[in-house]
Design goal:
76% of the residues lie in helices and 0% in strands. The chain is an all-alpha fold and 144 residues long. The chain has one domain: Four Helix Bundle (Hemerythrin (Met), subunit A) (Up-down Bundle). Helix 2 runs antiparallel to helix 3, helix 3 packs antiparallel against helix 4 and helix 4 packs antiparallel against helix 5. The longest helix is centred in the last third of the chain and has 27 residues. The radius of gyration is 21 Å and the shape is elongated.
């Protein structure tokens, strides 16, 4: 009898953890953004080195492809926006992602022209665009 009570108590304690984990599971957008972040971090380490321009161009191509892919998704925060404003919210997100792609293209052009210092500065602007977009469209992480 004690083991049944213990098991029931344990299940009551553990069940909320599974429902919370299901809500925070990674989506396709999360996976795409993680790939973008990986490419961005790689670029920041090597963009100033002209000897690595070929690899940087391949990495920037990946960043552009993932950025174009991300335009197709709806941000998770859409569910937090009132239904009447969701369409406008998603349109603003898509516009922001298109602007991000334009900035990625500028970085790529600077690299192709062997202007690594300029590309590095443009990459900093890209980081600012990413931070601004996350503030506006990304759900804040819940504090445990």
């Amino acid at each position: 009898m004690k083991s049944r009570t213990l098991l029931a108590t344990l299940l009551c304690c553990v069940a909320p953890l599974f429902t919370q984990a299901a809500d925070s599971s990674p989506s396709e957008l999360d996976d795409t953004m993680e790939q973008m972040n990986t490419a961005y971090r790689k670029l920041t380490r090597q963009i100033s080195n002209p000897a690595k321009n070929a690899d940087s161009l391949a990495t920037i191509a990946t960043l552009r492809e993932r950025s174009l892919e991300a335009v197709k998704f709806d941000p998770k925060r859409k569910a937090d926006v009132p239904a009447a404003e969701q369409e406008k919210f998603v349109a603003a997100y898509q516009e922001g992602m298109k602007h991000f792609v334009e900035q990625v293209t500028k970085v790529e052009a600077a690299l192709k022209a062997d202007k690594n210092a300029e590309a590095a500065e443009l990459l900093k602007a890209l980081k600012q665009a990413q931070e601004d977009g996350h503030k506006q469209f990304k759900r804040a992480k819940k504090k445990a």
